[in-house]
């Protein structure tokens, strides 16, 4: 069934965007703007695929990719929090660094392939016509992305640690006066964002494509950053945005397959144009940075 096939593909395309966006959302809620999501994702993709091939284990591949994303984020944290480097410049440098290093590390694995990741079938529910396959026969990453959304929402809104993180993101000077460890909380928020980006990259190489190629993230890290703004820094809206942009990516592929009389370059650019339009509409209606943490992107260095 064509419609069912399209829905399944949209879910697959949206999952890595959602996971990466949630990690960046927590990082930005702490007041840190990390533009290196693309670099962390591609490092996760390269190291995750390499680990899965070397150890012949998807689980170990996921672990390797997660650690790679976290280690790349650690580098960003040291530069930004430890040395007070500009967040924007450090994030852009991190993306360039990740793209270059991942190409070097993954060179030996070009052409290698992995078997598809097993789907999790829920007894009885998976047998329901249409809905069973779409909702109850997905891989573990899909269910993880929704569980992560709920956990991030609960953490930010229902726990003391989450409220402390938000307080730091709103005004780090006031938070410091109140005795909150600004740098420590921001450090852990950055690592969390890196881990999520790494898992997102692993999904691209082990599930979405099942092979490694240089630069395979193809701008998805930038879309994840845009998603945070689109969602007004709210986890629930990140889900909506991820699936809108995932659908845009899938529909342009189907449009190319249908051989419409439209240049393929225009169709390829469609998801990114949709991203820009969505942000433009939101900024016109609600303001350019509606919902943004007050200290977002502002450096904080202890005297």
What is the CATH fold-level name?
Answer: ABC transporter involved in vitamin B12 uptake, BtuC
According to CATH, the homologous superfamily is ABC transporter involved in vitamin B12 uptake, BtuC
* Helix residue percentage: over 70%
Main sheet?
A: 2 strands, antiparallel
CATH class: Mainly Alpha
Order of helices and strands: HHHHEHEHHHHHHH
Cα distance spanning the termini = 63 Å
CATH architecture descriptor text: Orthogonal Bundle
Mean pLDDT: 88
Bin the strand percentage: under 5%
Number of strands: 2
- Structural class comes to mainly alpha
Q: Radius of gyration, rounded? A: 19 Å
Q: Which strands sit side by side, in order, in the main sheet?
A: 1-2
Shape: globular
Contiguous uncertain segments of 5+ residues? none
Number of alpha- plus pi-helical segments: 12
Supply the number of structural domains. Answer: 1
């Amino acid at each position: 069934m064509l419609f069912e096939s399209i829905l399944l593909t949209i879910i697959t395309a949206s999952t890595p965007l959602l996971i990466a966006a949630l990690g960046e959302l927590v990082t930005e809620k702490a007041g840190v703007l990390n533009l290196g999501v693309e670099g962390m994702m591609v490092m996760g993709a390269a190291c995750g695929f390499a680990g899965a091939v070397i150890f012949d284990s998807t689980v170990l591949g996921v672990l390797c990719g997660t650690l790679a994303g976290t280690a790349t984020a650690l580098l960003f944290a040291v530069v930004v929090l430890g040395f007070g480097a500009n967040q924007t410049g450090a994030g852009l440098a991190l993306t360039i660094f990740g793209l270059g290093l991942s190409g070097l590390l993954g060179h030996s694995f070009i052409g290698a392939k992995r078997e598809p990741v097993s789907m999790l079938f829920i007894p009885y529910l998976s047998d329901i016509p249409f809905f069973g396959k779409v909702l109850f026969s997905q891989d573990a990453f899909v269910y993880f992305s929704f569980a992560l959304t709920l956990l991030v929402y609960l953490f930010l809104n229902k726990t003391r640690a989450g409220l402390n993180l938000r307080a730091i993101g709103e005004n780090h000077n006031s938070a410091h006066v109140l005795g909150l460890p600004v740098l420590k909380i921001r450090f852990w928020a950055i690592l969390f964002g890196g881990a999520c980006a790494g898992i997102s990259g692993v999904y691209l190489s082990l599930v979405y494509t099942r092979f490694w190629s240089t630069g395979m993230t193809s701008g998805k890290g930038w879309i994840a950053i845009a998603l945070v703004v689109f969602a007004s820094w709210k986890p629930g809206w990140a889900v909506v945005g991820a699936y809108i942009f995932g659908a845009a990516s899938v529909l342009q592929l189907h449009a190319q397959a249908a051989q419409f009389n439209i240049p393929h370059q225009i169709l390829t650019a469609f998801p990114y144009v949709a991203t820009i339009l969505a942000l433009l509409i939101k900024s016109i209606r609600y303001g350019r940075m509606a919902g943004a943490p007050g200290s977002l992107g502002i450096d904080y260095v202890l005297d």
